[in-house]
């Protein structure tokens, strides 16, 4: 018997939210269908109505993460639509802020933990849309002369690699302390971008 009753679809979202909470507080090793069920207050068999195994739950959590990131990036693009000179830095900063706010989720999203990601079409679609948004930002900045001309996808990978590497170093406390003492993190990020793409 389920200890809580959910409307159709609510149980799936409750399990995803429970999974995100476990990931944040206890780490990926503690995240299982059983632990998610316990955190959501339902029976250990309840998750199987929506998830076949832990991998499918991880795919759903990752999809949620990419949707959240995507929404924030799109909001940033709208805010700076008329200021391409600020757009690339603000887009990068939005990415960094997401990673700092949800480090465990961020690391899982890019960990390659899904064994066969192509079997999860919603996950793949969300990732593709997020990536294509980045390409569009690059195209906008190239058209304004903020970024150098060239293949937009190649440039997008270069920008993404820089920003992802930057925040990964920060999360792992690998950025030299003297730089963090000298610059605000956003300022340091801006310097890193401009030193390559000016």
Instruction: Give, in order, the helices and strands.
Output: HHHHHHHHH
Beta-strand content estimate: under 5%
Query: Rg, please?
Result: 19 Å
Could you say which structural class the secondary elements and strand pairing correspond to?
mainly alpha
Provide an overview of this structure:
The protein is an all-alpha fold. 70% of the residues lie in helices and 0% in strands. The protein contains 9 helices and no strands.
Topology:
Blueprint: H1 10-26, H2 33-40, H3 54-79, H4 84-101, H5 103-109, H6 121-143, H7 152-171, H8 177-182, H9 185-197
Helix pairs in contact: 1-2, 1-3, 3-4, 3-5, 3-6, 4-5, 4-6, 4-7, 6-7
Question: How would you sum up this structure in a few lines?
Answer:
Helices cover 70% and strands 0% of the residues.
């Amino acid at each position: 018997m389920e200890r809580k009753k959910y409307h159709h679809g609510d149980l799936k979202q409750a399990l995803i939210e429970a999974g995100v909470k476990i990931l944040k507080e206890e780490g990926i090793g503690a995240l299982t269908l059983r632990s998610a069920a316990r955190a959501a207050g339902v029976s250990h068999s309840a998750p199987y109505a929506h998830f076949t195994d832990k991998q499918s739950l991880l795919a759903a959590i990752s999809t949620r993460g990419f949707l959240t990131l995507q929404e924030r990036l799109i909001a940033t693009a709208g805010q700076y639509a008329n200021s391409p000179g600020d757009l690339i830095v603000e887009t990068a900063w939005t990415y960094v802020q997401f990673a700092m706010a949800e480090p465990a989720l961020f690391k899982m999203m890019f960990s390659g933990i899904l064994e066969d990601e192509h079997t999860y079409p919603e996950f793949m679609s969300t990732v593709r849309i997020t990536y294509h948004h980045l390409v569009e930002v690059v195209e906008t900045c190239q058209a304004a002369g903020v970024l150098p001309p060239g293949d937009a996808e190649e440039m997008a990978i270069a920008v993404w690699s820089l920003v992802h590497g930057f925040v990964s170093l920060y999360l792992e406390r690998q950025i030299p302390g003297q730089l963090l003492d000298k610059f605000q993190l956003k300022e340091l990020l801006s310097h890193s971008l401009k030193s390559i793409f000016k």
